[in-house]
Amino acid sequence: MNADRTVLVVDDTPAHRYVMASWLRRAGFGVVEAGTGRDALAHATNPVDAVVLDVNLPDLSGREVCRILKSDPATAHLPVLHVSATDVDAAARTAGLEGGADAYLPEPLDRDEFLATISALCRRVDAQRGAGRTARRLEALTGALVPLHEARSPEAVADHAARGACAVLGRAVISMVVADAGVVLRSVCAAEGAALVRGRGPTAVLPPMGASTAVFGPDEVPLPWQPLFDEAGVGPSAWFTHWLVDASGALVGGLGIEVGDEPLSDEEQEAAARFTEAATVALSNLRTFTEEHRIALALQRALLPSGLQVSGGVEVVARYDASDARLDVGGDFYDAFDLPDGRVAVVIGDVQGHSLRAATVMAEVRVTLRAYLREGHDAASALDLLNAALREDHPEFATVCVCVLDPRTGALELTDAGHLPALLVRADGTVDRAKAGSRLLGVPSPRSRPAHHDVLAPGDLLVLVTDGLVERRGASLVDALDRLAEVAGRSAGASPALLCERVVAAFDDPGREDDVAVVAVTRHASPDGTLSLTSS
């Protein structure tokens, strides 16, 4: 038990030093000897587990050496046993202990008491080190579980499981996830911070009958794993494997941990078990999230217009992208329809919140606004009527932008209620912002809403967006709107569909947390019948 422990023996009397070192060596300890305080400080930076320190040294006193050791973070953990043939009274022993020593023995020493004291000091250090390792492992485990539960794809679960388990256990790890259609995703992390090696295949490595864990020897490594280990630089080794099974008993994945020459300790096996349990929960949550997200998207799209017709050579394209980070339904909407007087109305808006209620209010707002505009109300009056209805029936707020376009002349009338400015992208690449700002819907509007009048020439593009496209946590909205204008300007002359694609792609980044709606409108030179509103 003592073979892995080394004791630094510091005494300026060679005979005393010899006796203590001999006792320690016979008891199985490794020994490093020093005759002065300065030599002791130099040796203490090497791996030692305890220090036997004579109080009276020729250069530095033992108490001073102890003080220096305890004040240095690199050596503060070392237990110090003071020994002395002269300072043996209670006051001297008390001063030594108060100065930082962990124990104090007067000379002449009793061999058994001396060895028992050293062993006790080493056990205490072992316990402290074990507690520190446990605390660090728990901290690493907690940190690794967060991205695992935030994963939104089977690939991400496999990656985070491999990285996290490697960081927690300090060993090479292979993670396995059974994805849709039985495809098995594998990720290997050879060391903390190393690049992942990924693979996929149709064949899962199955557990032995009735077992949840197993150990594969170096010559028993499953064939699908070996190419990944070779690429990751993982040499021949044994692998402790823990399979992941969901509540129904179906195999959903597994976690392989490199064992090598050191088998997993009980503490490591407990950490591995907790990690595999968390990975199983993460996969179950991911499947639930994916299904509910699909249903939410289907509901969202059912509430948005599809296949509407607008006349007079006006082409309208809408692009809607739901946030992958959210499960609930958002309140973004758009619309386009003919008015009785031959003009075309194009609408975009956003109802506050992400919930089924927000989607319901969104559908009501869209339909009500369409009805008011088709009754012949101008955009400002329609928004006022809509605001009154919204305030009477719902507590939600909403932003809306209404554009009414004359296909014959290109005359454009725009009114918005708290919405982002529209962009007019001219055929020559010039970008104008169209804003006729008034209060958002859901609050009193004491004055009439202004209107912005402009002309959409043939080849020009009208661009409308919701705030999910440009708003990012902690980022400048002004800078984002400038960037939007720049991206739109580079798409001058492009089709509305291509412009929508470029705009969404330009802002498709990990910081996006909200749904996005983009509408692009162009007017062709010669009205040639009816064109469909295209939504994607």
TrEMBL record:
Alphabetical UniProt keywords: Hydrolase, Phosphoprotein
GO BP annotations, alphabetical order: phosphorelay signal transduction system
Domain Response regulatory: 6-122
Recorded superkingdom: Bacteria
InterPro entries: Bact_Sigma-Reg, CheY-like_superfamily, PPM-type-like_dom_sf, PPM-type_phosphatase-like_dom, Sig_transdc_resp-reg_receiver
Hydrolase listed as a keyword: yes
GO molecular function annotations of the record: phosphatase activity
Gene3D superfamilies in the record: 3.40.50.2300, PPM-type phosphatase domain
Positions of post-translational 4-aspartylphosphate modification: D54
Protein name: Serine phosphatase RsbU, regulator of sigma subunit
